[in-house]
Amino acid sequence: MKFNKESLLSNIKVGDRRALARALTHVENDSSTGKFLVNELFSKMGDAQIIGITGAPGSGKSSLVDRLIGEYRSKDLSVAVLALDPSSPFSGGAILGDRIRMLQYTQDPDVFVRSMASRGKLGGLSVATFSSILLLDASGFDRIIIETVGAGQSEVEIAKNCDTTMVVTVSGMGDDIQLIKAGIMEIADIFIVNKSDKSGAEEFGSQMRHMIDPAEWTIPVCLTSATENTGISELITKIDDHWLYLKSSKKLSQSRKNRIRYELGQRVTQSLTKQLNNIEMEDIIDKLLESKISIENAIALLIHDLTK
Amino acid sequence: MKFNKESLLSNIKVGDRRALARALTHVENDSSTGKFLVNELFSKMGDAQIIGITGAPGSGKSSLVDRLIGEYRSKDLSVAVLALDPSSPFSGGAILGDRIRMLQYTQDPDVFVRSMASRGKLGGLSVATFSSILLLDASGFDRIIIETVGAGQSEVEIAKNCDTTMVVTVSGMGDDIQLIKAGIMEIADIFIVNKSDKSGAEEFGSQMRHMIDPAEWTIPVCLTSATENTGISELITKIDDHWLYLKSSKKLSQSRKNRIRYELGQRVTQSLTKQLNNIEMEDIIDKLLESKISIENAIALLIHDLTK
After folding, report:
1. B45-248 has which CATH code?
2. Which CATH number fits domain A45-255: 3.30.420.10, 3.40.630.30, 3.30.70.330, 3.40.50.300?
3. What is the pLDDT of residue B22?
4. Which of B39, B59, B88 shows the shortest C-beta gap to A150?
5. What ipTM describes this predicted complex?
6. Closest approach of chain B CAs to the CA of A282, in angstroms?
7. Confidence class for position A303, pLDDT limits 50, 70, 90
8. Residue extents of the structural domains in chain B
């Protein structure tokens, strides 16, 4: 079937997976159809819980996501997974590993997996994260899992776009526990110690539990083993608990407004950056090099040019 | 010795290493002293060749940098290394590995190594890259090597800030050669196949050579083995060749102006993002959610607010 933008929209809304896949490509390419869809769906945030999962390469995120899919499916909940891969052409293959494992679900219409990589395109992971989530949400999934490698900007991207953010780590990576704490407190709603079958995992978990500050929502520390399939249902319980917490405390609408705020901020910056590239800077640069103006002056001049 | 900002400046200029180290911390912290130094040194771009090196974890970048230091020192050239580490608190330790190896040079005043990590600070690798290079340059080093992991934004950062950018890879990582080519053509001045003692390296190298488009400067493909210390002096020759090319073609002054242009762009964006955070968006978000305005309208309204 060939879709036009109207039929794409209506087919997404009834959960057509091919329409969804097509629409995601439009959004990734920032085509006019993509823009149309995002505008149409913007105010239609659905009931899906957006769950983010981030962690170092080797922490077993992808296997854990597979286990979560299995557990959700056993409860008859539909799941979409969006894997954001900040890998580059030089990183030696996709950091998030082989999505082929997930092929076990290709026959299941209630599981949808999409990878978005920035391979070969320098300068920016998925600016399309927000919009892709909109489409998945409009397609009626019960749970949307966003997976990314914890490196640089990508984990901020996750935290800003998800209702529930999970940070996965394993014990014995030799990290400074104070730094881990700082990072977790900044973005995690749930902290996962994966590979809990390894020695030291229990101890690491309880160390972390002791360090986490009590709060209205106290970040739980979950021990899981994706390979041995343990701790998964306990983890799901915590994810559900966080969802109930967000709903009951009215933090959910706040979280979604924050998501929009972040997205608008990104788009404004993008738009201004584009404008900036068209500004003639030669004169300002020359003055800087001749020490006639300071850097602060130069920035003020550029902002003035940008906004006149 | 206790430095004030004036003495820091004068001591950097005569190559005092402790003053340099202190000044770099000021720049990293974006302190008023840091700002003063950057303004003072802005127009004093020196004669150092700024050499960038990026590549996947495991490609042997750091060992290669060690070899380059050794080779430059044997020619009695002074070298500064700035290692930009985009690792996060969850990435299991510094991606760029242990700088302790470099301790062999601690007694050598003509080698200076500095790591800048974003560990524990989410949302942004070294905004201080440009300024740090300024300081190293002002300190009179002959060569400045900027090393980073090839992932996401960090390799753009490198390419924008360096005179000569080198991309390191190893054969057998299973990457799509067309994607590698696309990425290389975008940022590399020199392409390195490291671990050339491994089987397949020669073949991979000549495949790449055949794919690279001839140009005014045709990207050379260098085979090196950091562990066996082979190909290093040939690599240095290519780095020198590129430097001569930049100078003779007047591309050097252009490259440096581009560096300034990029830096000013970053700073303008940063400044506007800060302003954006202070803007009241509630009303615009509500209108969006009520489908009263489009996203494009919302962005235009925000830009208007930002610039009034």
Report:
1. 3.40.50.300
2. 3.40.50.300
3. 94
4. B88
5. 0.78
6. 8
7. confident
8. 1-43, 45-248, 265-307
Integer Cα distance of B288 and A39 in angstroms: 9
Residues of B in contact with A260 (CB under 8 A): 285, 288-289
**3-class DSSP state of B170:** coil
Phi and psi angles of residue B55, each rounded to the nearest 5 degrees, phi first: 170, 170
Other C-beta atoms lying within 10 Å of the C-beta of residue B251: 16
* CB-closest option in B90, B186, B264 to A183: B90
**B135-187 residue pLDDT tens:** 999 999 999 999 987 655 667 778 888 999 999 988 876 566 766 777 777 78
Q: What band does A118 get if pLDDT is binned at 50, 70 and 90?
A: low
Q: What is the pLDDT of residue A93?
A: 44
Task: Report how far residue A235's alpha carbon sits from residue A220's, in angstroms, rounded to the nearest whole number.
Answer: 9
CA distances from A102 to A144, A165, B55 (A): 15, 22, 29
| pTM given for the model | 0.78
Beta carbons of A79 and A70 less than 8 angstroms apart: no
Tell me A79's DSSP state: E
Q: What is the pLDDT of residue B12?
A: 95
Contacts of A257 in chain B (CB under 8 A): 282, 285
List Cβ neighbours of B218 (8 Å cut-off, separation of 6 or more).
Answer: B212
Asked whether B283 and A261 are in contact (CB, 8 A), the reply is no
CB contact under 8 A, B90 and A155: yes
Report chain B residues whose CB lies below 8 A from the CB of A255: none
Q: Which of B59, B257, B288 sits opposite A42 (nearest CB)?
A: B288
